[in-house]
Amino acid sequence: MNNSVSIKDIAKKFKCAPSTISRALNDHPAINIETRKTIQEYALKVGYQKNTLSLSLLNNCSMTLGLVLPSITHYHESSMLEGMEEILLKSGYLLNICVSNESHTIEKEYIDRLLANRVDGLFISMAQESYDQQLGEHIDRVIQRSLPVIFIDRPNHGVASDRVVTDDYQGAFMATKHLIDMGCQRIAHLHGPSGISVSQQRFLGYQDCLIAHGRQVEADLIQYVHFSAESAIQATRILMQSDSKPDAIFGVNDEVCIAAMFVLREMGISVPNEVAIVGFDDIPLASFGHPPLSSVSRQSRKIGEEAAKLFLSKKDQKLEPVTISLDPKLIIRESSLRS
Amino acid sequence: MNNSVSIKDIAKKFKCAPSTISRALNDHPAINIETRKTIQEYALKVGYQKNTLSLSLLNNCSMTLGLVLPSITHYHESSMLEGMEEILLKSGYLLNICVSNESHTIEKEYIDRLLANRVDGLFISMAQESYDQQLGEHIDRVIQRSLPVIFIDRPNHGVASDRVVTDDYQGAFMATKHLIDMGCQRIAHLHGPSGISVSQQRFLGYQDCLIAHGRQVEADLIQYVHFSAESAIQATRILMQSDSKPDAIFGVNDEVCIAAMFVLREMGISVPNEVAIVGFDDIPLASFGHPPLSSVSRQSRKIGEEAAKLFLSKKDQKLEPVTISLDPKLIIRESSLRS
User: Fold this and answer.
1) Which residue, among A8, A63, A141, A285, would best test binding to B if mutated, counting the most B CBs under 10 Å from its CB?
2) What range(s) does the HTH lacI-type domain occupy (chains A, B) (predicted)?
3) Prediction pTM value
4) Which residue from A38, A210, B43, B68 has the highest number of Cβ atoms inside 10 Å of its Cβ?
5) ipTM score here?
């Protein structure tokens, strides 16, 4: 399909060896400067394009990296991606971005394709299915080939590899501590999908903070949701209709908290005085909620930047795997600020 | 860096010709079935990976497509991307996704890199800078090479090429007509950044609808914003502090409308009775606003699916350029529903 002009075509036109054309195009001093100019102008005119595929076969380096994400519709992931691209662009790398939709089969297929395309490294945030079923063979194969692999957000617990994560546990602990400080007695949790590291870490931070402050962790104060706003509607109704209603909710992300506030408004329950709320991710719309939503910021853009920098610092040398853990920040707004 | 095993390495091990190994790995019946099995098992064990780079040089087909977007932090873009990937994955294509951040220089650099990587086609939503300055040479070069180019969202007016767009003009017309039907007299517009097709089309739809209904288009009812929520704060305040306040706002997207509703709440102005509001994009959080936000849906996911299908239907044949224009849908919620 590519209608491209090769060095051979140009050589034919000028009745000389392809090596002469190659040298002329690379400004080699062995070629007369006038000849170089003529050949370069002709190459531009006919649309000659250096073939980095051939070059990458020679150099064993494709200047392309793979990024496999479970989804890309959330602010956290797209913002992380922007941070990553900013750093990589400067170093001349292109990103092959693939979305697994949390499916192990798709993730595996993408990784095979990326390997076949000879990527120079892989960033991966594992699909829920791979995580749940502890399927890591497809990633082990990458590591066996000495290709740099950097885990993002969701570490692969079985493998010693580089990783960049936010300390979700610490963030959840801070959010829960803040709700305790605000005088909340019965703090509920909208728990993320099980089997995903961020859900688990945020639950553990919530749980351990309650225990550290002499509180009980009550099963009927925990409701499971997906990461979507919709999934929190029913969960919030169940929490508020129980005999032992909560007076605070810590949600696994901002979307579920915005939906929870919507349900509370419908039920005539005031936020923060009857129910205080804290979310996670600090999405741009959190500050425009009614009321503005307190949230834990994950420094999403910085995660991407750090992952890219980690790849660049390690690509030419074998170093011990490191974990970069970014501190979360609690942003307090009206939704949890009790007077 | 790649520690990979080649067909030659395997041939050496089995003391036979590389072509025998290649046939065995491709299950060629000329090779004894036992031998095939032994070679295939060995290849799996040592981590042999088919090199699609070599294959793509032979076939002149990389099975990789480029996608260049101005940004990826909005629901519309990431949702479109998911639709596109779903279709392409089934056909074995990988997407090289690149984010131009609205910069012409970055866009140009990415396109050069994608050409050098021998992509089989290009999807592009042009950067604002390229659009403003009518810079299209970098794209003309792609088209000259007979590489399929499909424009998304923002058409390149100078070039006859395939495109998939939402009819933004029609969507804006519908939104404005709805506000007129609700009895609104002074309909303001939060106008998107100039020079971008979607901003312009949405403004024109608003303008022509007003004119078609005998209304005047008043300069002091139009305020410019970016696509971010933050950018609408000041713009909304200016609108509401003017001598001739609006009783409705049609915003260029949902984020600016959610921020506008925030400002109106702060000012004690009721939505929809004092000011009715309609946004654009129908992001998932629109329905959880206070009040739920009316919005024009662009069918974002479908745009991605249609663009992918268009590429697949045309990749092997030279056909006349087509434009697929998807009908927008007006979703009416409380923010514009006057009693």
Assistant:
1) A285
2) 5-59
3) 0.76
4) B68
5) 0.74
